[in-house]
Amino acid sequence: MRGDEDEGARGDADGGATGRDARQSPRRIALCAVDVDAAVAACGLDALVAALADDPDRRARLARIRHPDGRARSAVGALLARRMAAARLGGDPAAVRFGSAPHGRPYVLGAPGLWHSVAHSGRWVVCAVADGPVGVDVELLRPVDVLRLARRFSPAERAALTALAPPAAPAVRARAGAAPDEPDRRAEEVLRRAFFAIWTAKESYVKALGLGLRVPLASFTAALGGAGDGTVALSGPDGRPLSGWSARAYALDASHPVALCARAGRRRFPTRILRVAPALLHAIGSARDGRSRGAARGGRR
Asked: What is the DSSP annotation of 38-74?
């Protein structure tokens, strides 16, 4: 809705996209999202890519993405990360540059104390910014073979998902040529949502660690708390809580669950995801182009 975009553009006490709020609350985690379809409709894919013209590494990566949807998600993610990093640092989004750590964790050049994480799936791109390790993940709810994919999970997670499965798993019914009845369809929806809740939580933790695929998904357990506040409990193979880490589940809409993980302590998790108006992303490139044209005119005088 338009109101959500305006709120995300301004930022508020939950960690929005403006420099004033970000600088006043350095311990607050900022969590924002952009609707990629809306960004392309409002700005055009060519304009979004052109806004990154001064980042040759990013432009090279974009050029390697053949599908326009993937290129759009990557460009929007880079522009959103620029804007949020600049808001925390109190600088110009067009001046923000990123590097990559040995295991692939991105970081902001010249700002060693600033961490960020970007994820995209379906129509959404999300970005989290914090003053310590942080990871975010979003997934599009879609049909998957849950019990097969869950073999990569911890024993506790596999047991929890197996308990939710209908008497005959979808893959078994499909081989038998049988269509699911209404109760089975509802049970499969519950199972799918539980799977993606676990998946996003685990991905957010792995991304916060910054070690990439070196972290086996079965080496820890993610479980949604029963309080209904989105709290996610993280535990090690011995069942004990993972000391120093906190995680929380969110939802962008009915089809896109999100999870956020960060170092525990005095950091405040946002109560919701703030949506950024797509036009603000294009404004990053427009402002840069305007300055370039102004400098050119000044040079001709």
From this structure: HHHHHH-HHHHHHTTTT-HHHHHHHHH--SHHHHHHH
Q: Say what the pLDDT of residue 216 is.
A: 92
Q: How far apart are CA 249 and CA 225, in angstroms?
A: 10
Asked if residue 272 and residue 124 are part of one domain, the reply reads yes
Question: In this structure, is residue 137 part of a structural domain?
Answer: no
What residue numbers bound the domain in which 91 lies? 2-132+267-300
If one counts the domains in the chain, the total is 2
Q: Which of 58, 90, 104 is nearest to 209 (CA)?
A: 104
81 and 49 part of one domain: yes
Task: CATH number of the domain at 60, please.
Answer: 3.90.470.20
Beta-sheet strands, E only, within the chain:
30-35, 98-100, 106-108, 115-121, 124-130, 134-138, 221-224, 231-235, 245-253, 256-263, 274-275
Q: Which residues have CB under 8 Å from 27's CB, separation 6+?
A: 131, 266, 267, 268
Q: How many residues does the chain have?
A: 301
* Domain shared by 24 and 168, yes or no: no
Q: pLDDT by residue (tens digit) across 31-85?
A: 999 999 999 999 999 999 998 888 888 888 899 999 999 999 999 999 999 999 9
